[in-house]
Amino acid sequence: MTRKPALSKAEIEALLAREFPQAFHARSGLSIEHVEHGGARVRQAYNDRHIRPGGTISGPTMMALADFAMYVAVFSAEGPVPLAVTTNLNINFLRKPAQADVVAEARLLKAGKRLVVGEVTIRSVGHEDPVAHVTATYSIPPKP
């Protein structure tokens, strides 16, 4: 049986707009495409400001997208915990991304009381092979 997400896509979008407006706003290019319990698919719209020398999407852009995907996945499993923070993020760049939107799919591997571990796969839109693979850990603040 599939568990219902702790927060819906709309609820997560509202939470991010309220708690993290400097990162999640209309001009950020970030969007949430899908949310399920312990998982999310998010998109970073292509913008030439994300291009690095050599004509590829920059590493920091993909790292930020992976972190955003994990943040959304954490909300999908844990509910509204805006003070959850990244304690570790490891990224393997697998191939050169296209000059296109990039999509990240996050999946939580373990959700404990204080730590959540997950993985993220990033792809260029229109290409099947992943451009990066990420593992990340989030710290969940203690409940009052």
Describe the protein in words.
With 144 residues, the chain is an alpha+beta fold. It has one domain (9-139): Thiol Ester Dehydrase, Chain A, CATH 3.10.129. Helices cover 22% and strands 39% of the residues. The protein has helices at residues 9-19, 59-78; strands spanning 30-36, 39-44, 51-52, 56-57, 85-93, 102-111, 115-124, 130-139. A six-stranded antiparallel β-sheet has the order 1-2-6-7-8-5, covered by helices on one side. Strands 3-4 form a two-stranded antiparallel ribbon. Strand 1 (30-36) and strand 2 (39-44) form a beta hairpin. The protein is globular, with a radius of gyration of 15 Å. It starts with 8 loop residues before the first helix and ends in a 5-residue tail after the last strand. The mean pLDDT is 95.
CATH architecture: Roll
Supply Rg.
15 Å
Share of residues in strands: 35-45%
Taken in chain order, the helices and strands follow as HEEEEHEEEE
Helical amount:
10-25%
CATH class: Alpha Beta
> What is the oligomer described by this structure?
single chain
The mean pLDDT is 95
By CATH's scheme, which homologous superfamily applies?
A: Hotdog Thioesterase
Q: So how many helices? A: 2
The fold-level CATH name is: Thiol Ester Dehydrase, Chain A
Main sheet, how many strands, which sense, barrel?
A: 6 strands, antiparallel
Counting helices, strands and paired strands, the structural category is alpha+beta
Overall geometry: globular
| Number of domain modules | 1
**Spatial order of strands in the largest sheet:** 1-2-6-7-8-5
Poorly predicted regions: none
Number of strands: 8
First-to-last CA distance? 30 Å
